[in-house]
Every structure is written in structure tokens, then in C-alpha cells.
Amino acid sequence: MRNTFKVLFYVKKKAPLRSGEVPVMGRITINGQRVQFATQIAVLPENWNTELGRVNGRGANAIRINERLDNIRYHVERCYRTLFYEHASVTPQMVKESYFGLNTPGHSLLCFFRQHNEEFRRMVGVSRSKTTYYKYRCVCSHLESYVLKRYGRRDLLFKELDRDFLTGFHAYIIQECRYKKNTTWVYMIALKHILMLARSRGHLSKDLFANYKLHSEFVSRSYLSNGEITKLLNLPLEDRTLQLVRDAFLFSCFTGLSYIDICDLTAGNIKQDRNTLWISTTRRKTGSEVNVRLFSVPHAILLRYAPEGRGKPIFDLPSNGWCNVCLNRIAAQAGFDKPVTFHTARHTFATTITLSQGVAIETISKLLGHKNIRTTQIYATITHSKLDGEMERLSKRIDTLYAKRTQKEAF
Questions:
Q1: Who's near 265: CB < 8 A, 6+ residues apart?
Q2: Contact 190, 139 (CB under 8 A)
Q3: C-alpha dihedral (395, 223, 360, 298), degrees to nearest 10
Q4: How far apart are CA 203 and CA 224, in angstroms?
Q5: Is 162 within 8 Å of 195 (Cβ atoms)?
């Protein structure tokens, strides 16, 4: 049986764009079966020749559009011929997928992104963070919605990506998804990583992010003062879950451990050196070794929750999100007028517990398990008490240094 293959172009008059133009669609028909696809071309309705499936006129714009349509037809027909010699039966969907590269693993953006996420998922708990995996999965989901909404397709070839695609997605997550500047920055950095990875594997020939400026917004890091820590220590709580979350939060305030590292903490991580106890662990996020001395407050908390088995977790905490809900309730009972999340504890350790007590920034960086001291400087806010103390010490030195000169000038 002879195949009847045909490619037709038509305009979608019932879906006009804001500019007044209408999108040009393509249709592949084989033996009565057909499938449509978007050409990413738009024309004014009055300029379209329905019989010829082309734009009327001899102007530069008409010539350019007709050349693009001829180019699309040529590549669709080439895909059909290739499939015809490789398969016993060819469907319009097969031709469409071949044209858009959806049957070529790694050559399309979303296919590559999903493959990356699957590889990343298998490494979660080994050398990758679950939180980072969720971030990539979220970005991929938004990208799927964006491609479908703007291009009317399920995927895009890497060779189709350009700066307009990039700026369009940037605007989409700000305007449509309503994310704030820092979240948008994080998501665009994630996309940049995917495109750089694709480029390193030969799927993308150009750097779309070249000279593309991405900026984060400085956010004041919330932390607890000494008075607020004391109030939290003495706060009566009847609910056992709130007690657990409060105690784990305070444990983090005095050790600087993150939520996930506290969840991983076992009795095996507690080491004794002479007469002092230390926490010796490895940060899940960075893989850095961390050794923190156990002060009396976290030691008392530790004794309260110490499990029987050496390998069992010390703190059986709920999810990070639920812990933050609990902390909001605790903060409200304590009368705090600031947002408190579990990560506030690390800020508190960096600021109130260490920096304000004169600990060097290099030491704080080591205690927090940071690989770059610039990361530590984000946490290390100068408190009013430290500023007052430093100015008082400086005042005494300056007054002593210039006291004799001042006395001589007075006479």
C-alpha cells in the first residue's frame, strides 16, 4: 500500500495574538491520519494565502516567512523519508517527534533536564541533597509549563533555544509564578547549571547566559538575641512535639548544625576529648567535616533525648516544613515579633553565640562547615552589643593614646 504523505500550513484565526497577527500551524497527514504542530511563525490574516499555504506579497518580511516555511517543509519531509526507510509503518506523530528531536535522547531541553533530575535523585543521601533535588524538580516543572504555554509544545530542541527563550522564562517565573527576586535568582542559576551541563556534553553550541546579569537581593538574616534565647529556654510548653522542636532548635543555636545534620546526628557523633565532649560529623550539604564543642546547654538537651542504640538518631524530628510551622507557634507564645525558621538557629550561632563573643570569622566558618568564608560573612551580622563593646574598647585606646597631647595643648 502506497503512503499518502502531505505537509500543509494554515493559520489559526480563532487564536489571534495581541499584535493582531495569527499563528501559522503545520499539519502532517499520512494515510488519513494527521497531527498538528506550531511553527512559531505569526502573520496578519489578510496577508495569508489559504490555497498556497504561504504569505502574499514580495516584501522582505513575506520572503523571509515563506523561506522559513519552505525550510520547515524540507526538514519535515526529510524526517519522513528517514523514518520510511527505517520503519515498516510511519505515523504523523513519529514524523513530528523526529522533526522536534523528541526521539533523540539528550537533544531536547526538558528530556535532558528530566534525565539530569533522575541521575541526581539516585545520588540523594550519598553526595547530593534532597532539598537541591526538590529545587531542580521544581524548576523543571515550571519550565514544562512555560514551554507549553508560550510555544504550545512539550519540549524544545537545544538548537532552538535563544536569548528570547531565556528572558521569557525569567519573566514567567516572576510574573506568572510570582516568585520574589532571590527565589527567581536561585531558579535561574539552576537553569544556568543545566544549560552549562548540556553545553559540556555537546548538546548546546552557545552560552545563553553570556553577559546575562543575575542579581540576588540582600536579605537581613534573622537571629535570636541572648535575651530571646533565655526566654525560649524557660518557655513552658505542654505539647511534646513543640518541646522536641524547641529543644532541637536550641541545640542548633548552640552548635550551628543545620536541620538535616541534626536529623542525622547519632550517639556515634559524640566524642570525648579529655574532660570535654565534642560533636564530630560531616555536613550533608557540603561534605565538610565539622567539630563543635558541646556546651552545657546542648549537653543537657542531649541527655534528655539520648537514644538507647548508638546508631539511632538522637532527634526524631518531623519534616523541616512542619518544624517551621511549630517554631512559628513557639515564637508567638514567646512574644517574638520576628519570623523564626529552623535556619534561624544557624544565624543565631554565627551571630549571637560566636561573633558577638569575639570568635574570629575564620573559626566560625570552620564551625559552620563552610567551604568559602564569603558564605560565613552572610551570616555574621555585627550585633549592637558587639558594636558597643568594640567602640568602648576603641574609645579607651584612643583616649589613652592622645591623652598626653591633649593635656599639653590645654596649657
A1: 257, 279, 281, 313, 314, 315
A2: yes
A3: 120
A4: 48
A5: no
Residues 6+ apart with CB under 8 A from 27: 7, 8, 9, 10, 34, 35, 36, 37
pTM of the model: 0.54
Distance of CA 247 to the CA centre of its chain: 29
Contact 98, 35 (CB under 8 A): no
Which residue, of 55, 82, 100, is where some domain finishes?
Answer: 100
Q: Compute the distance between CA of residue 25 and CA of residue 147 in angstroms, rounded to an integer.
A: 17
The predicted structure's pLDDT at residue 411: 42
> Quick one: 21 and 162 in the same domain?
no
Indicate whether 130 and 176 sit together in one domain. yes
CB within 8 Å of 112: residues ≥ 6 apart: 106, 158, 194, 198, 203
Question: Sheet of 33-43: strands edge to edge?
Answer: 5-11, 22-30, 33-43
Neighbouring residues of 118: CB distance < 8 A, sequence distance ≥ 6: none
Contact status, residue 92 vs residue 33, Cβ threshold 8 Å: yes
Which position has the grid cell 527563550? Answer: 165
Residue 59: phi and psi, rounded to 5, are -70, 170
What range does the domain containing 358 cover? 226-380
The rounded distance, in Å, linking the Cα atoms of 24 and 15 is 10
162 with 288, same domain: the answer is no
Q: In angstroms, rounded to a whole number, what is the distance separating the alpha carbons of residues 103 and 336?
A: 56
- The stretch 105-130 carries a mean pLDDT of 83
User: Does residue 218 surpass a pLDDT of 70?
Assistant: no
Q: Which helix (H) or strand (E) holds 50?
A: none
